[in-house]
Design brief:
It is a single chain. By secondary structure, the chain is an alpha/beta fold. The chain has three domains: 142 residues, Rossmann fold (3-Layer(aba) Sandwich), CATH 3.40.50.11220; 86 residues, Udp-n-acetylmuramoylalanyl-d-glutamate--2,6- Diaminopimelate Ligase, Chain: A, domain 1 (3-Layer(aba) Sandwich); 122 residues, CobE/GbiG C-terminal domain (Nucleotidyltransferase, domain 5, 2-Layer Sandwich). Helix content is 28%, strand content 23%. It is built from twelve helices and 18 strands. Strands 1-4-3-2-5-6-7-8 form an eight-stranded mixed beta sheet, with helices on both faces. Strand 2, helix 1 and strand 3 form a beta-alpha-beta unit. It is globular. 40% of the residues are buried.
């Protein structure tokens, strides 16, 4: 827990580029959901609203007035997003303001989550762009009051954030952003994930060009690259990404089954080993899916919580609706379903084929499916 004292800047643990702060019961409830929908925030809220899973989810608790926490957040983060009244935020940040070239972006969200307001550092600090992206992610209305809005192009550090995409590394964010805003040739290659990411009411700038593969992009010799994929890159692609950012869409689901009492460590070891074999990124996993008999399975719940994945369960009847290549009478005898990990993965992903049908560990089984985005693309 963060201890707050007058005159002492508290120590915070920065893991993400933005801080999200809540101080009310309803604000905390919303904030916990926002942190799942928008993956680039570290969440802070008051200790009296503790739920018990904060350590696992890397949520930081504080006791005392939030005014004493803000100096540390201003110092460490690119933006501070407050679920606090606008007037209160203005009064609290006033003594902290230095220069528009140095101050972080500040956003305010109302307690009902209806509006996201750009308060400070709209252009240079990126508050306007972040307001649009964050509002899109949580289903709120963005409020921008500056006379002119941000340049209508791709905000590299926020690209796909509203869908839950994360970047592999922040190392190239600045030079790639420079290529985008300076209208240099930027290649975009998308292999999976949501396709309706262009949200402006104007055509995409001509310097941004979409290529069907990394091979075709590499042949075009772009100045920078945005690669949207859930797979690990090959050695020959490293040249293309010398000035590139890899985005990891939430495109994979892990269907899982396990013996009662299997440890979280054993389950995660099987996951890591399997994804490595498949050359897939763990950052692209969206959910663990299983049978409802496992809805209280501690090992599965812990792994999902630790990695910020959804944990979804289905009834035997729902699982039996999915096509299986190898239905098991033995599994049906004990669970009422002809399979667990395989149909759970297909059901969640809304597909009929697996990336990996099934792999058995000592006490757990895993199936991997890639989520279908075809319906979303056709809308």
């Amino acid at each position: 827990m963060i201890s707050l004292q007058e005159g002492i800047i508290p120590k915070v643990e920065k893991r993400k580029p933005y801080a999200l702060v809540a101080i009310t019961k309803h604000g905390v409830e919303h904030a916990r959901g926002y942190a799942e929908k928008f993956p680039y925030v570290d969440l802070y809220y008051m200790k009296k609203f503790e739920r018990g899973d904060e350590l696992t989810r890397h949520i930081q608790l504080f006791d005392g007035t939030v005014r004493l926490l803000l100096p540390a957040l201003f110092k460490e983060y690119k933006a501070v997003i407050c679920i606090i009244s606008l007037g209160a935020v203005v009064r609290m940040i006033a003594p902290l303001l230095e220069d528009k070239k140095k101050d972080p972006a500040v956003l305010v969200i109302d307690d009902k989550g209806e509006y996201v307001i750009s308060v400070l550092s709209g252009h240079i600090g990126g508050a306007n762009a972040l307001t649009h992206e964050f509002a899109e992610a949580i289903g709120a209305q963005p409020v921008i009051t500056t006379a002119s809005d941000v340049q209508k192009t791709i905000p590299v550090d926020l690209f796909g954030a509203k869908f839950g995409w994360v970047w592999d590394s922040e190392e190239k964010l600045t030079p790639v952003s420079a290529s985008v805003v300076n209208e240099e040739h930027v290649a975009i290659v998308q292999e999976t994930g949501e396709t309706n990411w262009w949200m402006h009411d104007t055509p995409m700038p001509e310097n941004l060009k979409i290529y069907p593969s990394t091979d075709s992009a590499q042949a075009a010799k772009p100045d920078a690259t945005l690669l949207i994929t859930d797979r690990l890159i090959e050695t020959y692609e490293e040249e293309l990404l010398k000035n590139g950012v890899i985005y990891r869409p939430k495109s994979l689901v892990l269907g899982m089954g396990c013996n009662r009492g299997t440890s979280a460590e054993e389950i995660e070891e099987l996951i890591d080993e399997t994804l490595k074999e498949l050359k897939l990124s763990k950052k692209s996993v969206k959910a663990i899916a299983t049978i409802d008999l496992k809805k209280d399975e501690e090992g599965l719940i812990k792994v999902a919580a630790k990695n910020n994945w959804q944990f979804v369960t289905y009834t035997p009847e729902q699982l039996n609706e999915m096509p299986l290549k190898n239905p098991s009478q033995t599994v049906f005898k004990y669970t009422g379903a002809y399979g667990v990990c395989e149909p759970a993965a297909l059901r969640y992903a809304n597909v009929t084929e697996w990336v990996l049908e099934k792999k058995k560990g000592e006490n757990a089984t895993i199936s991997v499916a890639r989520i279908s985005f075809h319906e979303e693309a056709s809308q």
